[in-house]
Design a protein that fits this description.
Structural class: alpha+beta
Strand content: 5-15%
Distance between the termini: 51 Å
Number of helices: 4
Number of domains: 1
């Protein structure tokens, strides 16, 4: 009988602690994501200081519109910021080979650089690439991704629509735990 009481007490305590542990793990992942995005933003700023341009291809810069880029290996952005030359003989965005950032290797395809192929991919703790919106038209602002958010608390904070633009050269966000862009769990560098 005493053993049964002890087991019930342990089960009740585990039931009470499980949501708090889950919340702590979510907060840990959010902080890791913010750390990666800050490192990415610092690297981009350093690159821009060195080359007087953003690390995007010339065609994007000439389009006259903001450019959205993913860190999914579709562009050499991550390799460029790490100071790696292009492997396929493509355009070298960082001819000086300056490493502006070091990212830890991804573990199980999550939280870091996936070095299994080139160009490298930079992934958040859930295995998703980061979204970057670059001010390639030079007006010192980018389209605000929050304006497209499906969560009204983000798209309309305080009951007012989110501003159409952010005053920055680059906006960086993660899709968050659900892996879908423009939802309530997105983690954005410009939001607290």
């Amino acid at each position: 009988m005493e053993l049964l009481v002890v087991i019930v007490i342990i089960a009740v305590l585990a039931g009470l602690l499980a949501p708090q542990i889950s919340e702590m793990l979510n907060e840990r992942d959010r902080l890791k994501t913010m750390e990666l995005m800050t490192k990415l933003q610092t690297a981009i700023s350093s690159f821009e200081t060195e080359y007087n341009r953003l690390p995007v291809d010339a065609a994007s810069s000439a389009s006259g519109e903001d450019t959205e880029v993913l860190t999914d290996g579709s562009t050499p952005l991550v390799d460029t910021l790490m100071g790696l030359p292009p492997e396929d003989g493509g355009a070298n965005w960082n001819p000086k080979g300056v490493p502006y950032a070091e990212f830890r290797p991804a573990q199980n395809g999550r939280h870091g650089v996936d070095v299994s192929s080139r160009p490298h991919r930079l992934l958040d703790p859930w295995g998703n690439p980061f979204h970057l919106v670059f001010d390639t038209n030079g007006d010192q602002r980018v389209m605000n991704p929050d304006a497209q958010n499906q969560d009204p608390r983000i798209a309309q904070p305080g009951g007012r629509p989110a501003g159409g633009f952010l005053s920055t050269r680059v906006a960086i966000f993660s899709r968050g735990r659900d892996g879908m862009p423009h939802t309530g769990d997105d983690i954005a560098l410009w939001r607290p």
